[in-house]
Amino acid sequence: MKSIVYKSETGVAVVHPAPECPRTIEEIAQKDVPAGAKYKFIELTELPQSREFRNAWEVDESELTDGVGA
Length: 70
Known about the structure:
alpha+beta; four-stranded antiparallel β-sheet; about 10% helix
């Protein structure tokens, strides 16, 4: 299962599509990622397992190559 990550004003934002959602992940990204924000699709296994330091998660903007929010 894939998720969407992008940089927000407060850090790294993660969008987890619902498994039963009829939309494609691309459609969800266009709907939910803020306009102009670059994003990337990642596997859930790529996310840190511990949420203890979630506010410290970082992503290099050069890696956000799958699209830009509409």
